[in-house]
Amino acid sequence: MGQMLTVHGTTPQRRFVERAASLLADDGVVVLPTDTCYALTAVPGSKAALDRISRIKGLSAERKLFSLIVPDLSDVARFAVVDNAAYRILRRCLPGPYTFVLPATREVPRILLVRRRTIGLRIPDHPVARQVADLAGGALLATSLRLPGDERPLSEPEEIDRRVGKQVDLILEQGHGGVEPSTLVDLTGDEPAVLRAGAGDTSIFA
Fold this sequence. Notes:
- The structure is a single chain.
- By secondary structure, the protein is an alpha/beta fold.
- Helix content is 26%, strand content 20%.
- It contains 6 helices and 10 strands.
- It has helices spanning 14-25, 47-57, 76-79, 84-93, 127-135, 157-164, and strands at 3-6, 30-32, 39-42, 67-69, 98-103, 118-122, 140-144, 170-173, 183-186, 193-196.
- It has a 10-stranded mixed beta sheet, with helices on both faces.
- A hairpin with a 6-residue loop joins strand 9 (183-186) and strand 10 (193-196).
- The longest helix is centred in the N-terminal third of the chain and has 12 residues, at 14-25.
- 46% of the residues are buried.
C-alpha cells in the first residue's frame, strides 16, 4: 500500500521530493499535485509503471492521454521539435495550465508514440511537479487522476487514498485539488489548434 505525505505547495519538503524521485526511478507510480488537478506520474521509460497506470485508468492499450511534465522551458527541446513560432507561444504560456502537442524527438520513449510521432508537453505552474520531474531525470509521464466511470479527476486526498492508495507507491497531497484538466493545444500545424478547452485561457489562440 502506498504512503501518503502532506507536501508544502510552495516550498516542497526536499525529503518528500527525493522520496518521490527515488520511487519513480524504481518503476514506481506516484500521485502528484499540479496546477490543474492531481496526476498519476511515472518515469517515461518505465513500461511496468506505464502498464500500472493504464490499468488504474482502465486504458488497456490506449495511451494517447499521456503527456510529459518537464521542469523548465530549457528542457522542452530534449523531447520536442520547437520552431520559433512555437517557442514564442511556449514562452508566453508556460509554466501554466496548458499541454502543447509538438513533434516528438528520439528522446521520447517509443512506447509513448503509439500510432503517432507527437508528444504532449507540460510545465505546470506548481513547484512539486517540476521539482520531482527534475530529480527523476528531467521528465515525468503524467495523466490526470480520473478513474473509469468518473466525470472528473479525484480531488480530495482521502478519496484518492481510498480509491488508488493500494495501487500506487506514494501520494504527495496538499489538500483539495482542481478538477479541470489543462487546455490542450496542437502546435504541429500552421496555426495553434485548441483540441480541448480546460483550465488555460483559450482566447489567446483565437
